[in-house]
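Q: Convert this sequence to structure tokens.
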Amino acid sequence: MSCETKSVGFPFFFIFLNSNNPNILPS
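A:
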């Protein structure tokens, strides 16, 4: 696991959380 992989995985993880819990990020 390199920093590049983590940099790409983090945003996707946040999108996944936001998909399940829309209240996390106001839209």
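The mean pLDDT is 69.
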